[in-house]
Structures are given as structure tokens and as C-alpha cells.
Amino acid sequence: MDYANRGRPPQKKKPQKKRTSKSRAKAPARPAVPWWLVILAIVLVVALVLGLRFISGKGEQQAQQPSAQPLPQQQTTAEDSEALPEKPEERWQYIEELENFEVEVDVPERELGPPKLMQCGSFRREADAQTLKAQIAMVGLEAQVRATNGSNGLWYRVILGPYETKRDAERDRHKLQRAQVFGCQIWNWNL
């Protein structure tokens, strides 16, 4: 059975009620506006208009009519212009003070600590240490491979330095990080 093409079932018709004259008579009547409310609205509108005219100044202009007689203009003479005081010359003291002013700054000397060494790897096999040394040489830095006997055997360390300041060591470490050589650490080591 095809539900999409099936039509709607027929609707039952509701019987319509006839309107009577009584239902028309029961229509609600609009309440009349009280006369005092209309007068109050008119008074408020007039007061608003007069207030706006007073604020804008047009009410004052109509009240004060310009006089028909022109006011006598004061004539300036050469004597009056000479009676004015001369314009004072500006004197700025700080310009002269700043030209001759010297600033003295006390910069404390940096204390140089022990030399800094940067270790980039530690390997059991010397071939691995030499491979890392070659990668570092491709960046343009010179590394050293040192053999160290520790408690757990022989280790080959790849180190750079010594550096006088930590800033110099950080500069080289950033070069190595750009060349994808990670894991380098800066330590205070004595040679």
C-alpha cells in the first residue's frame, strides 16, 4: 500500500451555529477617555514646546528686540596701541639645564663564574659519539669527544666549550636546536 499517495481521510463537517442578535449586543463597549486626561495631555505638550524654545534661546531673542540705534564703535588710535604692554619674552630654564646635564650610571661589573661546558650527548660506543660530533661540525661548531670512566663503565661524552659566560653557551645551543640537535645542557664544569 502506498502511504505517500494516499489521500487524507474525509473530514467530518461541524455544524455551524447561527448568530443571534443577542451575541452582537454583548460586544464590549470601549471606555470613553475622561475629558480631564485630554486637557492634561494638551497642557503637557504645550509646556514641553515652551521649555524647548526657552532652552534653545529663541524665546529670549524674541523678548529682546534689537535696538534701532547702532552702538558707537570705539575708534582705536596709534596712541592706544602703544599703551599696550609689550609681549614678555619667554624664558625657559630647563633647555639650558638639559644641554649641560650629564647622567652618571653605575653599572656593576659582572662576576664571571666558573667556565661553562655544554654536553650534547653521552654514549657507550665511540662511533655514536663521533656521529654526533660530525652533526655538530656541520652547524659550524667544534665539539670534543672525551672518554670518561664512571662507576657503571666507560662513557663517551660529546662536549662543547669552555664558554666564559652562559649567554655564549646559550647562543651555541640555539644554533644546535635550529639544526635539530636537541638535548644539550649547560653546566658549570672545571676542566
UniProtKB/TrEMBL annotation:
UniProt-annotated stretches for the region Disordered: 1-26, 63-87
PROSITE patterns named in the record: SPOR
Listed InterPro entries: Cell_div_SPOR-domain, SPOR-like_dom, SPOR-like_sf
Transmembrane portions of the chain: 33-55
Keyword Chaperone tagged: no
Domain SPOR: from-to ranges: 110-189
Gene Ontology biological process: cell division
Alphabetical keyword list: Cell cycle, Cell division, Membrane, Transmembrane, Transmembrane helix
Gene3D superfamilies: Sporulation related repeat
Keyword Membrane part of the UniProt annotation: yes
Signal peptide start-end: none
Comp. bias (Basic residues): 9-26
Low complexity: bias regions: 63-78
Source organism superkingdom: Bacteria
A GO MF term: peptidoglycan binding
Protein's UniProt name: Cell division protein FtsN
Annotated source species: Pseudidiomarina taiwanensis
